[in-house]
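Q: Got one fold?
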Amino acid sequence: MTVRDLGWAMLRRWYVIAAALILSVVGGFLLQRGGGLYATETVVSFLLPDKTSLSLNSGLDDASVIAFAGVVAREVNDGGAPASYSTDDAPLYGAGLREGSFVSLPNAGNQWSTSYLRAELVLQIIGPSEQWVSQRQEDLLAKVVEVSDAQQSSVTAQDARIKVASVPLTKQIFHVLPSRTAVISAYVALVIAALMVGGWAAVALDRVSSTRDKVPREQMLARVSHEGVEQ
């Protein structure tokens, strides 16, 4: 099929194109009216006993404490490693998620090697409302503390255990909204996709219609030819 044939098919079945465009615009409007998302990236530090994050030899860069933080992260994720992206600082909404959480030990390495430099977990949370994100944040923080205590149950003295402390400034919840440029780009992409899908549907419908019209016409010609032979 040539471009000209495609154009004629789309003109003849213009209502298919119109339906596809209307659906794309309505779908884009429904997605946009959600009011954006709420997100947070809460940092949880693991510290040696009787240390703070500002202390020398606090344990943040201690290999054993980093390993312990990794164990806690795995347990919080129900025994499995969390899903990874090309970079650890990639936001969840950038991956297309609208509701969920992601607990990880930041990797300073690359796709060929891993490098964990600090005993800190990052709790990335994204959700449709501030209340939902806040509740999920509290649940995850409580679970991190619970798992940490369970892993150190053999250490009877509380003052000998690795401490868990959330960084207060990172507990803030942000409202994420698309920029005007992003909205325009999204609508342009939707229109292009609608034209592609609508064009394919128009061509398919045109071919089916042409085939249906062609069969009765061939049957009529065959009948006329048969009657002419009999005469």
